[in-house]
Write a structure and sequence with these properties.
- By secondary structure, the chain is of the alpha+beta class.
- Helices cover 17% and strands 43% of the residues.
- The strands form 3 sheets. A 6-stranded mixed β-sheet has the order 7-8-9-12-14-15. Strands 1-2-3-5-4 form a 5-stranded mixed barrel.
- β8 and β9 form a beta hairpin.
- α2 packs parallel to α3.
- It is globular, with a radius of gyration of 18 Å.
Length: 230
């Protein structure tokens, strides 16, 4: 999907109170940018990193600037988690993910005590997909999730297992923003319970997919799949 235009380059000075970053633009102006990411942004929110920010004229917005991309290890990384599902939805609707060709797509599907990101249906086949944004590499070329303990993510795994037991195809979909990654694994050192649950639900029939994104200052789109190592 297309990113906002225009984007302005700057340097990340600091991230604080989770949703705020101070950014120095190329002309030396320091601005406060909204950061749409609730995770730790480990390896990404590093002072001195190159960033791209967008602006808005919306009078209802408290902050004019939004952090869009961060340069990590020489590559642009999309940390804007509110865009994650839209990137996947675009790929689903364009039949760019081979496992889900010609399915009807419904975002934000209520199931149990959660809203699962996507409900897909084709004839009698029903699929629930939960998407997770991946911006961390635990080891060189190994992307991993989560970057902080996530009880919410654990809950989603349990919900997917329940869906599988009720006859749905249930899928956990990791959208990997680190283009250097050649495989995906759970971040056991950060959240061992998430890793344990992921292995358990996969053993019980929940499917797991990991796809890298192709990120440029102009767009973010789903790229190639990578192996999942559990």
């Amino acid at each position: 999907m297309n990113l906002p235009t225009p984007l302005f380059e700057g340097t990340l000075l600091r991230r604080y109170k989770r949703f705020f970053t101070d950014v120095e633009l190329l002309d030396g102006t320091v601005v406060v940018a909204h950061t749409p990411n609730t995770g730790s942004m480990k390896q990404c929110a590093v002072p001195g990193s190159r960033v791209l920010v967008s602006t808005t004229d919306n009078p209802k917005r408290k902050l004019k600037y939004t952090l869009e991309l961060i340069m990590v290890a020489g590559r642009w990384v999309d940390t804007h988690t509110q865009r994650t599902n839209r990137v996947v939805e675009e790929a689903l609707r364009k039949n760019q993910i081979p496992s889900f060709v010609d399915f009807q797509v419904q975002p934000e599907y209520r199931f149990g005590e959660s809203r699962i990101d996507f409900f897909l249906q084709k004839a009698d086949e029903k699929v629930l997909i939960e998407v997770k944004n991946v911006t961390l590499c635990c080891r060189p070329e190994t992307a991993c999730f989560p970057d902080a303990v996530t009880t919410r993510g654990q809950k989603h795994l349990r919900e997917l297992l329940g869906a599988k037991q009720q006859g749905y195809r249930a899928v956990i979909f990791f959208l990997v923003q680190r283009s250097e990654a050649t495989e995906f694994s759970p971040a056991d050192d950060i959240d061992p319970e998430y890793g344990r649950l992921l292995r358990h639900v996969v053993a019980e029939g929940v499917e797991v997919l990991a796809y890298k994104t192709i990120v440029t200052p102009e767009e973010n789109r789903v790229g190639e799949p990578i192996p999942v190592v559990l």
